[in-house]
Amino acid sequence: MIFALICSGYSFADKLIFKLNDPVGDDHGPGSYVYPTNPVFRPGSFDLTGFEVYESESDVIFNVYFKNWFTIPPDLQISNNKNLKDIFKAILFLQNIDIYIDKDHKYNSGITSLIPGRNAKVAPESAWEQAIFIAPQPYLARSEMGRLAKGMAGRVIVPATYDVRDNYVQCKISKKIMGQPTERWGYLVFVTGAEWETSAFSLSNWMQYGPSYEEPVLNRIVDQYPSEWEFGGGDPSGAVPNSIDMFVASGESQEKMLGSYDPKTKKRATLFAFYPFSSTLEVEKTGTKEAFAGEMEVVDVLKNVVVVNAGRGSGIFVGKLGQVYDGNGALVATVIVEEVREEVSICTVVPMTQTAEIVVRMKVKFK
Ligand SMILES: [Ca+2]
Q: What spacing in Å lies between the alpha carbon of 33 and ligand 1's midpoint?
């Protein structure tokens, strides 16, 4: 035990805050993604298996585990220099790791977009305050953040150094920057393919994918078909997310979450953070009527989106929580109002609260 602790580089003062495991073999995004065909993309090298957060007196420490050992860059594979090979044995070369932290778990408080090019958005209940972008080329990543994502660059830490050991990456960030982790913190963590060169504005991409196309900050785009250097298994809509594997809360489905994009309307997938200490969502009271009480009905359901027959004039407001009940009066899920229209309101299901499928005509109670 002592030996293991020393070898893995921990001091005894480091305290585990939590650990989350991820299934092996789900390095396929929404279910269909395949690796590029070049053999440097070793099977399992994008397969997340675990995420740990530790704290020491001065730092917050993040460990991200993968199924397979990191690939040695192709130039070094043909080198006979053993010393050089040993030095570069542990290197992050093909993967970007994004860690977004929702620190207050407050509805719509924080940023709901991701670093450009990830091609997904964050649900308002998981809006984040600070992110860590672990990149193979940190200096280039920083300048690209400044060029393509000025608005959020100040909230994204791109660590200049991190350790790559065996099958995990460890990065330590000072508490002076991160603050003290609390039980309210939620985490959205996923891996994308790392691009080595900056992208230039590409008219062909813009024409193919439409005006919502974003120049990526050093991540690979998932294509319809795999090629030597690009992932495949997406579709030609330009709406597919570029995450290959992602951590989700227990009971949630990565495939469902990453698959919640719409190729027709080009609506991006909505991602939710996981909250290891099941902190409760805080909702600002922004409505006009204090005590809106009513029993409404589900009139339509699509994935995690629920339409309820309460529109303007009913007193309902964005951010309000409602409970969905089945015919026997059993609680099925909690929903949150996203948008109020004339006759109906659009709600999304609060993750981790759904116990059964929501169907039309189920009752929704707003307190
Ligand atoms: Ca995995």
A: 13
Domain with 305, as residue range(s), is 294-366
Q: How far is the CA of 26 from the centre of ligand 1 (A)?
A: 5
Distance 69 CA to ligand 1 centre (A): 14
User: pLDDT per residue over 11-64, tens digit each?
Assistant: 557 999 999 999 999 999 999 999 999 988 889 999 999 999 999 999 999 999
CATH code for position 62: 2.60.40.1190
Cα 245 to middle of ligand 1, angstroms: 6
- Per residue in 173-205, pLDDT (tens digit) is 999 999 999 999 999 999 999 988 776 656 666
Q: How many other β-carbons are positioned within 10 Å of the β-carbon of residue 132?
A: 23
pTM of the model: 0.74
Centre of ligand 1 to C-alpha 307, Å, is: 33
Which of these, 93, 92, 141, 91, lies nearest to 117 by C-alpha position? 141
Q: How far is the CA of 254 from the centre of ligand 1 (A)?
A: 10
- Nearest residue to 139 via CA among 165, 115, 158: 158
Task: Assess whether 177 and 128 both reside in one domain.
Answer: yes
Residue 70 Cα, ligand 1 centroid: separation in angstroms? 15
3-state SS track over 119-157: CEEECHHHCECEEEEECCCHHHHHHHHHHHCHHHHCCEE
Whether residue 169 lies inside any domain: the answer is yes
CA of 244 to the centre of ligand 1 (A): 9
Residue 46 C-alpha to ligand 1 middle, in angstroms?
A: 8
Pairing of strands 95-102, 186-193: antiparallel
Q: Which contiguous run of DSSP H or E holds residue 83?
A: helix 82-87
Q: How many domains, the chain?
A: 2
**Rounded distance from Cα 23 to ligand 1 centre (Å):** 5
335 is a domain residue: yes
Rounded distance between C-alpha atoms, residue 351 and residue 334, angstroms: 8
Tell me if 278 is assigned to some domain. Answer: no
Q: Are 223 and 349 in a shared domain?
A: no
